[in-house]
Amino acid sequence: MITRDDVRAMVSEEIGVDPGSFADDDNLVELGMHSLKLMKVAGRWRKLGHQVNYSELVLAPTVEAWAALLGVAETQPIAALPAADDEPEFGLATMQHAYWVGRQSGQSLGGVAAHLYVEFDGADIDVDRLARAVRRVIERHDMLRVAFTDNGTQRILSEAPAQVWSVQDLSGLEPGAVTQALADTREAKSHQFMDVAAGQVVDFSVSVLPDGRHRVHVDVDMLAADAMSYRRILADLADLYVSDADALAPIDYTYRRYLADKARAADRSTIERDRTWWDDRIDTLPDVPALPTIPEAERTDVGRSVRVHHRFDAAQKQRLHDVAFGHGLTPAVVLGGLFCEVLAEWSSSQQLLLNVPLFNREQLHPDVDRVVGDFTNSVLLDVDLTDAHSALSRARRFQHILHTASSHSAYEGLEVLRDIGRHRGSPITPSVVFTSGLGLGELFSDTVTDVFGDPVWILSQGPQVDLDAQVVEIGGGILINWDVRRDALPAGVVETMFARYVDMIENALAPEYDWTATTPAVLPVEQSRRRNQANAGVTAELPARTLHDRFFDLAAIRPERRALRWGEDDSYSYGDLAADALRVAASLTATGVVPGDTVAVVVPKGHRQVVAVLGVLAAGGVYLPVGIDQPVERKAKILERGDVRIAIADDGVELPAPARRLDFSDALRATPAVARATVAPNALAYVLFTSGSTGEPKGVEVSHSAAAATIDAITGHVDLTDDDCLIGLSALEFDLSVFDIFATLGLGGTLACVDASMSRDAHAWSTMIRRFGVTVVNAAPGLITMLADTASADDIARLRVILTGGDRVDAAVARRLRTSVPGLRFIGLGGTTETAIHSTICEVTDESPNWTYVPYGVPMNGVACRVVNSRGEDCPDWVRGEIWIGGRGVAQGYRGDPDRTSDRFVTYEGQRWYRTGDMGRYLPDGTLDFLGRADHQVKIRGYRVELGEIEVAMKRLSGVETAVAAVVGIGTSARLVAAAHGTGLVAEELLEGLSVLLPDYMIPESVDVLDTVPVTGNGKVDRAAILAILRDSTDGTVRNSYVPPGDDVEAALAYLMEQILEVESLGVETDFFEAGGNSIMATIFVAKVRGMLLVPAVTISDVFDARTVRALAARLRTQDRSEQLEQVAGILVDIAGIATGSATELTTQS
């Protein structure tokens, strides 16, 4: 019977305090009983026969509760376990297998060894004595003589290879040469790939330096030893060096025996319980942190890592201890929670999945703590930092998440990752790891540092990891160390993130820090300065005015100037245009229109629209354009929701009942109004209805001053004058038409009016541009592309400015046009209807980078832009977030929709902002980069997929001019598809090209090559039309559709793969991993291919590289014995033909 005194004694032993210093109801976690010690205690009691586990202990961490638990726990003394088998090879532990697979090429972030490299600087080392100590420590620990076979097993060698020890004598070199030699050694050993197949899992060496100094280098492959074992190796090495003899007590246990004992002692019911717990959550687990990583295909050297580090001294360590336990936390939880905060700030999602290794040696033998091997487990933490909470609340939540997940760690984290990958159809890469060694003692003992010197360099690498963060106790203090793939993140991001982490820790340790306060994230100081500089124009003085007053003033002063041109050579002078507009105004006033009333303009595209719009404004009204080709039902909705007083309509245009109408021809018969109505600059000028995300149109209300501010900012930038002639390509319902009309006529220029018959005829535009001497084109990117594809150099020779926005701007089109017209200014504009046409500006120059798309650019005068995360905080440079736009151009809201208005138009720090729903990022130079719509971020099989990222990748492929990615179907039937338009495109080649640029889960299942690109009435790419094509398409090349075997080798491989994946009719071009395969299954598959097809040379790398049956078959045929392979495959196919399909039966018959 376990008593409270028994519990108290064990607790006292584990946490190192006097048994009488704590009460029965004290929280033991607050006293230092962290998760690793809890696991050890649970293991010790299980060894004594008490069936308790970590989860039960962590739920009530007091002496009283544990005594009660142990008093009722079932007691089953563990029988002595039989010895492990004597086969020369034995299996790999879960983490070992992950490291072994990760060494192979052909997988995301693979081809890198998991190893830990440390350098010690000291003096007066006896090299021969150290050599003897190295030999003895290798003899002592059989895992330092382990070799890993190519079929995923390990075996102990009688002696280690010669490469494990070396001496580099630099004592006679000049200082500069010594420095260079040490740097070269560090670079080589930090990234070396030891030959583990030959048994080289350690590398001990010493560099002899001038003046009796030395540097000891120790590199250990983590296949053979985890971090705790690394500590044991160095401690034993130092003791053996000091004694210069075999003075250590022998170890009566081995790692091989441990694996066997652990397997036999495993509690299958607990493992199954934990597996079910994770399985119930698999649909809701988030992705790994969405940091602004560089795609692997664009990295120059994926195998290199960089290190950033910071040391906190002993006093700061004590302060951390006091602060943590004072709030019921552990130091590891405080640092882990703050690490998650940093990740959340630099992630595009504040929900993230964090991989946390656990050092969990089951206490199966008295000597287990002296054994070298890999004893690590891992646990996945589902961290949600979306909501704003106090630092204390978040830390406690993190602790709860850690304890909860750890209590279900019998089913290991790597198994959960494999299950997620199988569920989603593609392997998941745990690219961010956080490891805490706090509470485990000093990383290097005093003896180690006395013998070898001070640790001056620590670097670890691991496969499939971009950021490996560690916190350990060293030199009486704490070392914070990040090892990061060198090209994983844009320049400067790692250093800025790390500085933020250190700053957060220092703030948390400050006496004045308020743990109960909610503290929002802040931008790094330099980034904040650049951001403020980019947005400085928001305070620029812009005149408050109406849109139309300048036109009427010019018409009075210079009535003879030509205002509008159309047709062959028809035109309107300023005076005649003003007179007709005032006729319309008089007619509207006569019908009862008063200032502020909304008047619909339902007139075909062309010069008469301009007359109508100016007439509405002259009457003091608000114009609301309605396209004459709109469906009747949509027209009715717009007229109703727009609160339209009357519609001015072209003769013959049908209006839905009961709308009041004024025929345009009748309006022109009226006597011109003597004067236009008085309108304040802040009064509404127009209402534009755009497509809503719900499918219902939404009316955007824009004031005169808002639109005028945008126009003045752009005209000032491009130096628009009365000598310019601008062509009006945009539909009146599209806000680019606002600039066309009022920028041109407000400065005395000429507007070339395109009528409805020409609206999609780029040849006709080209003719008009040449005939009328057009100097400025302002249109959506789709129309600019049509123009570039159609117009000759002579047609556009007089162009001086192209303005384009409203959609992504193709940089290749900009380059083509600038080449055709020397001196042409090509300007990309970004913005929304809700922010008065445009808000940002980016001019393409000869010095512009090799963009795929032109960035949004920088905010215009009168505008400020933010990029914010889900918490409304500013995102650091490179981090994806939602674009918010503030300033003079922000619309008043959505007509008749206060709920939507309050949702999208918000106030922050006293300024009104529009939440665009567009996603973007700030670049370090202050440029805003557009990344697509928020609603273009989708989830496919659980993976977060950016459709815009796929489109950018497609645009990088040769010949692709337009690309659209989309999802068809819903739920489990959802499919990722794409369409492309360009020159000489072949769907199969596009898919092959994307496989180099994108991870598997982002590669579309099919690609349709389009002959033409549909565009909307506004000149944008018509995504809805393309989506309809993709839904109906049967002609696209489908990736991973069923393709039957073409010969016996493919049939045999497909059969074996089907048995392992437990699927039927696996196509020979189906991706093994997308079909549910993982590294464990790949290992089993390789073993079956070797045994049943007699192909000893096949390796797991072949499976990762080939991925499909067809590619693997082709690969195997290039090896020796291809004729034998054909024969054996034929026999296997014959057997499979008469078998029931059971892999066991097939194996038996074979």
UniProtKB/TrEMBL annotation:
Keyword Ligase assigned: yes
Residue ranges constituting the Carrier domain according to the UniProt record: 1-74, 1044-1120
Gene Ontology molecular function terms on file: ligase activity; phosphopantetheine binding
Keywords tagged on the record: Ligase, Phosphopantetheine, Phosphoprotein
Cofactor(s) for this UniProt protein: pantetheine 4'-phosphate
GO cellular component, one term: cytoplasm
Pathway where it operates: Siderophore biosynthesis; mycobactin biosynthesis
Gene Ontology biological-process annotations: amino acid activation for nonribosomal peptide biosynthetic process; lipid biosynthetic process; secondary metabolite biosynthetic process
Family annotation (CDD domains): Cyc_NRPS
Pfam families named in the record: AMP-binding, Condensation, PP-binding
Matches recorded under Gene3D superfamilies: 3.30.300.30, ACP-like, Chloramphenicol acetyltransferase-like domain, N-terminal domain of ligase-like, Nonribosomal peptide synthetase, condensation domain
NCBIfam families per the UniProt record, alphabetical: AA-adenyl-dom
Entry's family note: Belongs to the ATP-dependent AMP-binding enzyme family. MbtB subfamily.
The protein, known as: Phenyloxazoline synthase MbtB
Organism (species): Rhodococcoides kyotonense
